[in-house]
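re: the backbone from monday

yeah here it is again, tokenized this time
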């Protein structure tokens, strides 16, 4: 799996399109979410772990309106990413939706302080409804 961050949208989107950052080490999940979000008119940014996500967030001109975050990833996991994101004055207001296969206890979910939580496999209709709620 690639550890590089990709900042190009998968399909051309209008200049006014809002961005969503997908942070997941599973390339199949990234591809599925990129396809879904691109069809909805979003620019899709991707990162394979929390460290790469920070690299993306520090280089984009306009911050994404939402972050879709996996919890278990190499290099920097979702818990550590979220902890550092909440301490960054430029990034802490970006809502985070956790999408993970972790069969976690409620305390772990609460510790991430996410706006929403989905277990894989994801019901696309519910994810789309949740994303629209934040826009």
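seq for it, each position gets an aa:
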């Amino acid at each position: 799996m690639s550890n590089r961050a990709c900042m190009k949208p998968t399909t051309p989107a209008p200049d006014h399109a809002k961005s969503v950052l997908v942070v997941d080490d599973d390339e199949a999940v990234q591809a599925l979410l990129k396809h879904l979000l691109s069809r909805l008119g979003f620019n899709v940014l991707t990162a394979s772990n929390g460290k790469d996500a920070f690299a993306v967030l520090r280089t984009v001109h306009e911050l994404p309106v939402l972050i879709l975050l996996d919890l278990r990833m190499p290099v920097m996991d979702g818990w550590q990413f979220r902890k550092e994101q909440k301490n960054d004055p430029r990034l802490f207001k970006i809502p985070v939706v956790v999408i993970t296969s972790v069969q976690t206890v409620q305390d772990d979910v609460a510790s991430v302080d996410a706006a929403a939580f989905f277990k894989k496999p994801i019901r696309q209709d519910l994810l789309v409804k949740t994303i629209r709620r934040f826009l």
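The chain has one domain: 19-133. Residues 19-133 form a domain with the Rossmann fold fold (CATH 3.40.50.2300).
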